[in-house]
Amino acid sequence: MKKFSFLLIFSLLLFTACKKDHVDATNTKTLQSSINDMTASLPTIKQIKFNEALYILKTFGVEADGDVAELKALGQLIDGKKVPEIMAMADQVAQKNGIEWASTAPPSLGEMNIFGNETAKESDPNDVKANSLSITTRPTGDDGTGAPTALQIVPRLVDNAGNPVSFTGAGLEATLEVFSNGVKLSTAKNLMQDNNFKGFNLKFSSLPAAQVVDNKIDITVSVKTTAKTFKMTKIGLDVNPLLLKVPAAPKVDSTAVIQDPAVIDPNNPNATVPSTTDPNAATPTTPAAPKQPASDPKSTVSGFLNNVSAQNLKAAYNSASNPSWGSYESFSNPTSGFGSVKNVSVKNITTNASNATSASVSATYDVTDKSGKTTSLRATFGLKNVNGDWKISSYKINP
Length: 399
Prior knowledge:
By secondary structure, this protein is α+β, with helices and mostly antiparallel strands. The chain contains 8 helices and 11 strands.
């Protein structure tokens, strides 16, 4: 009996000793196993805060695209670290990114699981019920001449009527992407804990002047809930060109003596004048031009109208990047959107103007709604080059 008790105690001690108290990021399996061991050793409240800390580090503490890459980068960041060290790192990252989170505060981010379990819990603060996303933008700051220095970008989750939905205690991942002429300039992330979210403050000085075309940018904001990711785009926002980031001029050593190769050495008048051109020097490269669309812009309009007629509304919506159409839910609404269309009969499509970045297309067509009423329309479509594809960016019905 004593021998059995000794063996039982020994096995329990051995099991306890096998549990890890630090992160083992050898691979994804050991990473998850070690984090589970560390979590299990904590009281319930600290378990929640530990998961929040890991989420903060995975979302804001590493630079990577996609959940798998983010998880791998997180493992490299915290490999060998213990719980107190990870908590301290998360505090620093939250403070650096202006996130209202602290390791010593009560739990505040809902259900966090860095290993990708997106199943809604019975009471999940991140399972926010909304219809779409709206964006408000406004210039802020003053450069001394009355011109703004930044752009405040505030997203709101809204219901079917366009009214903000009410929620608290969530930890929704909000992402801002900034483009110009189809080229991505920057990405920023933050946490949306309620619908009073302050949004993003985009400083013009963070944007490279060489990549901002016509002093305008496009923005896309996405907010990820448990069940769905909402996305909204705004096109053609003005920036202050005087504040855009310009590379610093190379420093010149004022004490250096510049030898003019054309000056002949009087002690060696037959010396060859050295060439000022390095034959091995690389030829300067010019900035890459925007990718040119392979198709005619009127093909995009024709495809859009055909997809609306066939009620392939997802394809129609994906061929556009028009802020006035809002979310896909608004676009496809069976009462107020293109979901009310039964058939489109195209009569004529003409390209009015086109260059490398934008185009204008006119179309004449008959629209029959689901009640059987037919209306003849003349519309002008504005299009924009987005990474080599024509996207509908504006839509106007002419009298």
